[in-house]
């Protein structure tokens, strides 16, 4: 099953992974939510790491695609930072906050999408 995901969303996931984001996942949201094409969800063990992930995601997406988030919310307490890119949303959680809100369970009907290229060079695809 092929899923249309903005390439910048995959870059956001890759950027989080590069800075050791925990359990980074991407969900295809078009069919269920309709407002955005994808959620990228990642987490960190402390608020400093949350801020580092946000900075790296913003830098990586800007360098690769020339876009910045339309808005970023939650940086003050850095327990759940939401980065709104219009076509996709990045959620950067403190691990305890991620466990509490459990977005993956809330949106369990959304297909998980691979954001890593595999050995065959296949890009974004539903898992």
Number of strands: 7
Helix content: 25-40%
Shape: globular
Report the span from N to C terminus.
8 Å
Strand content bin? 25-35%
CATH architecture descriptor? 2-Layer Sandwich
Q: Taking strands numbered 1, 2, ... along the chain, how are they ordered across the largest sheet?
A: 3-4-5-2-1-6-7
Mean pLDDT across all amino acids = 89
CATH superfamily: Beta Polymerase, domain 2
Structural class: alpha+beta
How many helices? 4
Topology as a string of helices (H) and strands (E) = HEEHEEEHHEE
Structure explained in plain terms:
The chain is α+β, with helices and mostly antiparallel strands and 127 residues long. 33% of the residues lie in helices and 27% in strands. The chain is built from four helices and seven strands; from the N terminus they run αββαβββααββ. The protein has helices at residues 7-18, 47-65, 95-101, 103-106; strands at residues 22-28, 38-44, 71-73, 80-84, 88-94, 112-114, 125-126. A seven-stranded mixed β-sheet has the order 3-4-5-2-1-6-7. A hairpin with a 6-residue loop joins strand 3 and strand 4 (80-84). Helix 1 (7-18) crosses helix 2 (47-65). The longest helix has 19 residues, at 47-65. The chain is globular and about 35 Å long.
């Amino acid at each position: 099953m092929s899923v249309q995901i903005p390439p910048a969303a995959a870059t956001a996931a890759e950027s989080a992974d590069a800075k050791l984001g925990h359990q980074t996942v991407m969900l295809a949201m078009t069919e269920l939510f309709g407002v955005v094409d994808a959620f990228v969800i990642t987490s960190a063990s402390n608020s400093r790491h949350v801020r580092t992930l946000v900075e790296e995601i913003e830098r990586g997406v800007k360098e690769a695609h020339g876009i910045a988030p339309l808005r970023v919310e939650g940086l003050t307490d850095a327990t759940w930072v939401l980065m709104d890119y219009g076509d996709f949303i990045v959620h950067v959680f403190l691990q305890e906050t991620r466990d509490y809100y459990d977005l993956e369970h809330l949106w369990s009907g959304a297909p998980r999408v691979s954001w890593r290229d595999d050995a065959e060079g296949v890009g974004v695809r539903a898992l």
